[in-house]
């Protein structure tokens, strides 16, 4: 299956390779239904995974959330055992993040279609983990359409799962942050781009985008229309099909977020990470060299004359995935992954670091603070001859400069 999207000028073009072998994903780690989320380990027998947005229509972007199908689902708050999958305390420990930061900051989530249960599902997630309530009534949560109103688009179960993943990950990383959910009318880039602009207009200094499509020559025009927002940290998922570049992760104005496999270990840090993916390719974090977008001045890698993807990364492997609560045409607690998870995680870390200065370029911040990141040095997301698909010391494509070690790398 090949993904096709239409540019704003009406051209149809072949997209990035579809997710391969998702129903038999072999990236390690079976998440047992254990009392502790931190019991999960990478490297165990293969798990079953499916994309939440499996059907692709011409002219659309696709969401990048993946669902574990081998995890027992259940509804409501559970007192007997923690939900399967990493929760807020795990992410805070793994990435050395404060448990109470982000007060006064607003993280915007941009997705397509409507999740009718977004607020109630968020309440269940936050209550389960003892996080402060985030509701419309207390001013913490707000849901709008791409015009800033309440004429919400058609509900969609796949994008609803994506929305659940996104708002839960922001909650996990930045419990004190406000959340602005902007729902685009469709998965076309023009509608999603309008939703990005709406989020910025409404005051968000951090905007997460967990979707992607193939590159084309019109992307540089979309850059200036939708993503050139100085003083705003815009994060974008790098993709779930392994080695290869998607847009808008390729935009020169965004922080492209790759993905890792995360597991607990006996090291000083207490955690270890490797590239999400395999050298066989076809699945895992997206990476590579853009065909169209120019290289930002702060990127110094020599093997790509244009924009290299990614910049930084966070956990994305569904085999070491995240607990998420999703009840719209779904059964409640599940384990989700994909770079759809890593983008809102990084947006939340930016928010913990504080609002960027006016006129600044937040995507450049990590390049000035490489010592404040966990360098990921093992693994690959496909077959190539260099760092664009293979991890190593310093910068590499699948994981960028690394994963958060506190918030210092995300300040100006």
Automatic annotation (TrEMBL):
The keyword Flavoprotein does not apply. Residues 85-412 form the Peptidase S53 domain. Residues 1-32 form the signal peptide. It comes from the Bacteria. Keywords: Hydrolase, Protease, Serine protease, Signal. PANTHER family: PROTEASE S8 TRIPEPTIDYL PEPTIDASE I CLN2 (PTHR14218), TRIPEPTIDYL-PEPTIDASE 1 (PTHR14218:SF15). This is Peptidase S8.
């Amino acid at each position: 299956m090949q993904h096709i999207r239409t540019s704003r000028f009406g051209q149809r073009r072949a997209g990035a390779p579809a997710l391969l072998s998702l129903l038999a994903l072999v990236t390690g780690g079976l998440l047992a239904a254990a009392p502790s989320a931190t019991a999960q380990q990478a490297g165990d027998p293969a798990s079953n995974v499916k994309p939440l947005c499996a059907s692709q229509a011409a002219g659309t972007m696709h969401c990048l959330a993946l669902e574990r199908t081998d995890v027992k689902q259940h509804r409501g708050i559970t007192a007997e055992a923690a939900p399967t999958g990493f929760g807020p305390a795990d992410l805070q420990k793994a990435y050395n993040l404060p448990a109470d930061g982000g007060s006064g900051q607003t993280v915007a989530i941009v997705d397509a279609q409507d999740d009718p249960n977004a607020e109630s599902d968020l309440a269940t997630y936050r209550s389960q983990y003892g996080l402060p309530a985030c509701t419309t009534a207390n001013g913490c949560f707000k849901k709008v359409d791409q015009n800033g109103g309440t004429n919400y688009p058609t509900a969609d179960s796949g994008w609803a799962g994506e929305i659940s993943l996104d708002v839960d990950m922001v909650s996990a990383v930045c419990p004190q942050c406000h959340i602005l959910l902007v729902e685009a009318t469709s998965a076309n880039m023009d509608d999603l781009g309008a939703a990005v602009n709406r989020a910025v207009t409404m005051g968000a200094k951090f905007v997460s985008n967990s979707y992607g499509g193939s590159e084309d020559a019109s992307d540089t025009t979309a850059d200036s229309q939708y993503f050139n927002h100085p003083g705003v940290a815009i994060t974008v998922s790098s993709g779930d099909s392994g080695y290869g570049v998607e847009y808008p992760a390729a935009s020169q104005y965004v922080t492209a977020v790759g993905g890792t496999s995360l597991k607990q270990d006996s090291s000083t840090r207490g955690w270890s990470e490797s590239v999400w993916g395999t050298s066989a390719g076809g699945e895992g974090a997206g990476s590579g060299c853009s065909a169209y977008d120019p290289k930002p001045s702060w990127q110094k890698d020599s093997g790509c004359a244009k924009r290299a993807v990614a910049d930084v990364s966070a956990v994305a492997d569904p085999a070491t995935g995240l607990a998420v609560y999703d009840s719209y045409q779904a059964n409640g607690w599940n384990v989700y992954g994909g770079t759809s998870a890593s983008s809102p995680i990084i947006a939340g870390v930016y928010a913990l670091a504080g609002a960027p200065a006016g006129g600044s370029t937040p995507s450049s911040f990590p390049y000035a603070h490489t010592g404040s990141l966990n360098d990921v040095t093992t693994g690959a997301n496909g077959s190539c001859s260099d760092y664009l698909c293979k991890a190593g010391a310093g910068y590499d494509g699948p994981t960028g400069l690394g994963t958060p070690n506190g918030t210092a790398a995300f300040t100006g």
